[in-house]
Amino acid sequence: MCTSGLRSARTLATTSHSGETAKRVSATSRAVKDSRSTRMSLVLAKSVEVTPRAREAGGMTSRLGFGALHLTDCGWGPPRDRDAAVALLRLAVDLGVDLIDTADSYGLGANEELIADALHPYAGVTVATKAGQSRPGPGEWVPLGRPEYLRQQAELSLRRLRVERIDLFYLHRVDPAVPLADQVGALARLREEGKIDRIGLSEVDVPTLEAAREIVEISAVQNKYSSDDRTWQPVLDHCAATGIDFVPWRPIPRADAAVAKVAAELGVAPAPVALAWLLARSPVVRPIPGTTSPAHLRENLGAEHLDLTAGQLDLITRGTT
Ligand SMILES: NC(=O)c1ccc[n+]([C@@H]2O[C@H](COP(=O)([O-])OP(=O)(O)OC[C@H]3O[C@@H](n4cnc5c(N)ncnc54)[C@H](OP(=O)(O)O)[C@@H]3O)[C@@H](O)[C@H]2O)c1
Question: In the chain, how many domains are there?
Answer without folding.
Answer: 1
